[in-house]
Write a structure and sequence with these properties.
The structure holds 2 protein chains of 2 kinds. Chain A is α+β, with helices and mostly antiparallel strands. Helices cover 25% and strands 32% of the residues of chain A. In chain A, strands 1-2-3-4-5-6-8-7 form an 8-stranded mixed sheet, sandwiched between helices. The model of chain A has no long low-confidence stretch (mean pLDDT 93). Chain B has 6 helices and 8 strands. Chain B has a domain of 125 residues: Gcn5-related N-acetyltransferase (GNAT) (Aminopeptidase, 3-Layer(aba) Sandwich). By secondary structure, chain B is α+β, with helices and mostly antiparallel strands. The relative contact order of chain B is 0.14. Classes of the chains: A alpha+beta, B alpha+beta.
């Protein structure tokens, strides 16, 4: 399923994906700059298949997905996948498909919005993720919203003659920094 | 891939699953002892649904399913994901289920050893990894004996019996297999100089 629109700071928001976003995801995932730490950089997805994937994601009961927009334009996606409803746990992920925007804090803000929704609207108990250890920007973005490292998976990715380990993280509602709660949850008029 | 072929242990044999196995599969998935010990493959269902699931499994490009038997009796199943394009070729054990009425007879160890021999001595994989519920002592013993070690631990991951239990992520490298079992566990007698 798709998550609702959540407006954050600095022109960043999460919003339900549309078909054009799926085309952007497909093409951006073929770029060397954005696949340094993620994905094999090949695909079997045609434009028609992208539409099928959107329908499947929309109907899927074990994930909540968003597009990430920066200044009104879709630049990536995030979500929680493989949800275990009994344990109220799921795997989170994030992807920024515009490498010219790296370092602007987009991922940090998207993670903050995503986690606020997961804890406050889905009543989750836990979330977890795996991130390339060398992708500091990504795991730091997650750390800022309460993730901590629980292990390291050795030699997970091979790139340009180097093996990269993977950073294993988890977060709980109690580890989310209360002073970072975004709107609408921090708003005084928001019903408690 | 998809449906595994015969892998012989000393007391157990991993073999290709058939439709005749499905009633037992369904009963294990409904058994609270199995559900407590680790992840089940699929939820209990009607026979027609299980047949569809077996067909789907046969089409799976990377997931391989075996039935486990001893003395011609079905006693379990094992399912592994075999892959590694960007990472070292590896097997990720997804389900390893022994009929609870057959627990504590050594079948789990025997089947696990045979399966890992297939991974390392036949498929030439570089590692195996899986996750265990932290309180599953029997599975942990088998894993440690094989050579697995923990590389991560998730806290309060699985909810059952009214509380959460941790999850242990474990990994076994090919070098460990070679060191512990490389000289004694072989799929075939090496040809050696006769090649």
């Amino acid at each position: 399923m798709f998550g609702p629109r959540i407006v954050g700071d600095n022109g960043i928001e999460l919003r339900p994906p549309v078909l054009e976003d799926y085309h952007f995801f497909s093409t951006s995932q073929m770029q060397p700059e954005v696949t340094r730490f993620w994905g094999p950089r090949f695909t079997s997805e045609t434009p028609a298949a992208a539409e099928e994937r959107l329908k499947k994601d929309l109907e899927g009961k074990n994930s909540v997905l968003w597009s990430i927009a920066y200044q009104g334009e879709t630049v990536g996606f995030t979500g929680i996948f493989d949800i275990n409803w009994a344990s109220r746990d799921g795997e989170t992920g994030i992807y920024i498909g515009r490498h010219d925007l790296y370092g602007k804090g987009i991922a940090s803000e998207a993670v903050r919005l995503r986690m606020a929704f997961i804890w406050n609207e889905m009543n989750f108990h836990r979330a977890h993720n795996w991130i390339a250890l060398a992708n500091k920007g990504s795991w730091r973005a997650n750390q800022k919203s309460g993730y901590s490292q629980i292990g390291t998976y050795p030699r997970s990715w091979f790139r340009s003659g180097e093996w990269f380990d993977e950073w294993l993280g988890e977060a709980f509602p109690s580890t989310f920094p209360p002073d970072k709660l975004p709107s609408p949850w921090r708003d005084k008029e928001h019903p408690k | 891939m998809a449906l595994g072929g015969v892998v012989r242990g000393k007391r157990t044999t991993l073999r290709t699953p058939t439709e005749d196995d499905l009633a037992a599969y369904s009963s294990w998935m409904a058994d609270m002892r199995v559900r407590r010990a680790g992840p089940i493959w699929r939820e209990p269902a009607m026979p027609a649904t299980w047949k569809e699931r077996l067909k789907d499994q046969a089409k799976d490009q990377r997931g391989v399913l075996w039935s486990i038997e001893t003395d011609g009796r079905l006693i379990g199943l094992v399912r592994a994901y075999i892959g590694g394009i960007e990472s070292p070729p590896a097997a990720r054990l997804q389900n390893f289920i022994i009929d609870p009425d057959e627990w504590r007879k050594g079948y789990g160890w025997d089947a696990a050893l045979a399966l890992h021999r297939y991974f390392f001595d036949y498929l030439d994989l570089k590692r195996g990894f899986t996750e265990l519920r932290a309180d599953n002592v029997a599975a942990r013993r088998i894993a440690e004996k094989l050579g697995y070690s923990e590389f991560g631990r998730g806290h309060q991951v699985h909810y059952r019996d009214g509380s959460y239990v941790d999850e242990s992520w474990i990994l076994m490298e090919r070098a460990t297999w070679d060191e512990r079992f490389g000289k004694t566990e072989r799929e075939y007698v090496p040809f050696g100089a006769a090649r």
